[in-house]
């Protein structure tokens, strides 16, 4: 059985507290934890690259370097050809210094790396430079060494955290190691799963170092990774009225595609009925392409009133625009007090005219970083420096569940609860993907999910469908390609 804490995400401070609890509370010496970390990483190296016999290990002055020295010693004892490059002539005090001494005493030569020198010939590089100990840009000569490692053209294994990556936020303030595999120790660091981190970590594995489950029982995680989920089967006497009626509002001149994608996603995600309120000129194309959508001309707020009376959930924003037409429909929708998913220009209008939603109204906001910055009154770089803080701030400020989209999408609720999506791929960085997500979440709200449930389940289904669609290649992936795998996932036909 998988331990529950393996899906838990911790801050750097929390992992350091766990480490200290293992030393002080369980009586496990720090050097023994270092030895176990090295052994776990070396086992992962042999498992993932069984043909490798010549490695270069790059060690910093702290405990992450100590892990590297002990891995180098274990590899040497196993018959590997090992080269060790250190950033300093000596490691710091304590366990790291002891590990370096053991490495050298065991017959492994340690050479200080100097900027401009070539790296040793190796089939694999091991990054043990900084780990969690760095939240600023690496200085010289470490930055030059990191760039050389990245340019080596051979696989890279990172110990605990790729050096240069902020393990709390997923932000890289400067150059960072781009690993193929990261073996993280004791607790999963939240920053390894969002923002710039996926480009640096490669695959992430957690090694709990043989510590007892009691270690994590008193620790309250900062966040959790989403787990695969879907809706239960429908009862045999189901009818469309039980699955809700989504009203999708948007599609100004020239953006019929956005509103169609949103509406069709709501249908494929199981909404019983889906109506579309859009420009009159879009109706012939919508009726011809997807007659199951009930398309209506909405030239102004008055035309929305009868549609709002029949709807149970609103999806507002795809192709809406920020002109007078879109603004009038937006105001009417927000005043309707129905469960709501707000995206795209619906969010840009909210940034212009902020309001806090009532706690008893299910509302989900789905900003990308640029929209999040406008909502917070900052720039996109500020959002990127701490996505966790941005998502939580948005949720608390607007009184809504927030999906901060991007690599490692975050789902945040007022009060601080937060989940991280571990799925998705670069092929999904294309037009229409956000429109699909809006429709999916709205359909889940219509079928009885809470705002928190609909956001988490919707993000997970959307990302997992994207991964299945990308099996035929990431480049050229279209939003519409997700609809078939989405249907299979939602019905439990493709785990």
From TrEMBL:
Family the UniProt entry places it in: In the N-terminal section; belongs to the NnrE/AIBP family. Belongs to the NnrD/CARKD family.
Keywords: ATP-binding, Isomerase, Lyase, Metal-binding, Multifunctional enzyme, NAD, NADP, Nucleotide-binding, Potassium
Ligand binding (AMP): 405-409, 434
Gene3D superfamilies (alphabetical): 3.40.1190.20, YjeF N-terminal domain
Domain YjeF C-terminal: 223-493
Enzymatic reactions: (6S)-NADPHX + ADP = AMP + phosphate + NADPH + H(+); (6R)-NADPHX = (6S)-NADPHX; (6R)-NADHX = (6S)-NADHX; (6S)-NADHX + ADP = AMP + phosphate + NADH + H(+)
Residues covered by the YjeF N-terminal domain: 15-217
Binding note for cofactor: Binds 1 potassium ion per subunit.
Binding residues for K(+): 64, 127, 163
Binding locations of (6S)-NADPHX: 63-67, 131-137, 160, 258, 319, 368, 435
EC number: 4.2.1.136, 5.1.99.6
Cofactor(s), names only, from the UniProt record: Mg(2+); K(+)
The protein's name in its UniProt record: Bifunctional NAD(P)H-hydrate repair enzyme
Domain of life: Bacteria
Functional summary from the UniProt entry: Catalyzes the dehydration of the S-form of NAD(P)HX at the expense of ADP, which is converted to AMP. Together with NAD(P)HX epimerase, which catalyzes the epimerization of the S- and R-forms, the enzyme allows the repair of both epimers of NAD(P)HX, a damaged form of NAD(P)H that is a result of enzymatic or heat-dependent hydration.
Subunit structure: Homotetramer.
SUPFAM superfamilies: Ribokinase-like (SSF53613), YjeF N-terminal domain-like (SSF64153)
């Amino acid at each position: 059985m998988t331990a529950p804490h393996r899906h838990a995400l911790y801050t750097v401070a929390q992992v350091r507290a766990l480490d200290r609890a293992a030393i002080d509370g369980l009586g496990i010496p720090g050097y023994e934890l270092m030895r176990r970390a090295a052994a776990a990483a070396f086992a992962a190296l042999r498992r993932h690259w069984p043909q490798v016999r010549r490695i270069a290990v790059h060690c910093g002055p702290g405990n992450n370097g100590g892990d590297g020295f002990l891995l180098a010693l274990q590899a040497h004892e196993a018959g590997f050809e090992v080269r060790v490059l250190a950033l300093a002539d000596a490691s710091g005090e304590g366990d790291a210094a002891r590990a370096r001494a053991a490495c050298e005493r065991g017959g492994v030569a340690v050479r200080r790396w100097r900027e401009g020198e070539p790296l040793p010939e190796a089939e694999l590089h091991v990054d043990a430079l900084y780990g969690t100990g760095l939240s600023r840009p690496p200085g010289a000569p470490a930055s030059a060494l990191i760039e050389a490692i990245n340019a080596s053209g051979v696989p890279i294994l990172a110990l605990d955290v790729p050096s240069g990556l902020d393990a709390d936020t997923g932000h890289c303030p400067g150059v960072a190691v781009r690993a193929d595999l990261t073996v993280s120790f004791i607790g999963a660091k939240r920053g390894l799963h969002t923002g710039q981190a996926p480009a640096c970590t490669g695959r992430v594995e957690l090694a709990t170092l043989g510590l007892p489950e009691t270690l994590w029982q008193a620790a309250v995680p900062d966040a959790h990774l989403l787990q695969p989920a879907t809706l239960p089967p429908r009862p045999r006497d189901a009818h469309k009225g039980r699955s809700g009626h989504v009203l999708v509002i948007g599609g100004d001149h020239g953006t019929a595609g956005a509103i169609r994608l949103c509406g069709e996603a709501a249908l494929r995600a199981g909404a019983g009925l889906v109506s579309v309120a859009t420009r009159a000129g879009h109706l012939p194309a919508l009726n011809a392409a997807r007659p199951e959508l009930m398309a209506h001309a909405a030239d102004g707020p008055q035309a929305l009133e009868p549609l709002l009376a029949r709807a149970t959930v609103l999806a507002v924003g795809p192709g809406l625009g920020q002109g007078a037409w879109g603004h009038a429909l937006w105001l009417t929708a927000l005043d309707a007090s129905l469960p709501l998913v707000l995206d795209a220009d619906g969010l840009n209008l909210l940034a212009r005219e902020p309001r806090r939603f009532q706690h008893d109204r299910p509302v989900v906001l789905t900003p990308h970083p640029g929209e999040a910055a406008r909502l917070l009154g900052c720039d996109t770089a500020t959002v990127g420096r701490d996505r966790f803080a941005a998502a939580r701030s948005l949720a608390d400020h607007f009184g809504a569940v927030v999906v901060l989209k991007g690599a490692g999408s975050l789902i945040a609720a007022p009060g601080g609860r937060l989940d991280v999506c571990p799925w998705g791929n670069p092929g999904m960085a294309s037009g229409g993907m956000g429109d699909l997500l809006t429709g999916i979440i709205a359909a889940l709200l219509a079928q009885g999910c809470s705002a928190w449930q609909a956001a988490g389940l919707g993000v997970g289904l959307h990302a997992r469908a994207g991964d299945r669609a990308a099996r035929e290649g990431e480049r050229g992936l279209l939003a519409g390609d997700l609809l078939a795998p989405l249907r299979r996932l939602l019905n439990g036909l493709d785990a």
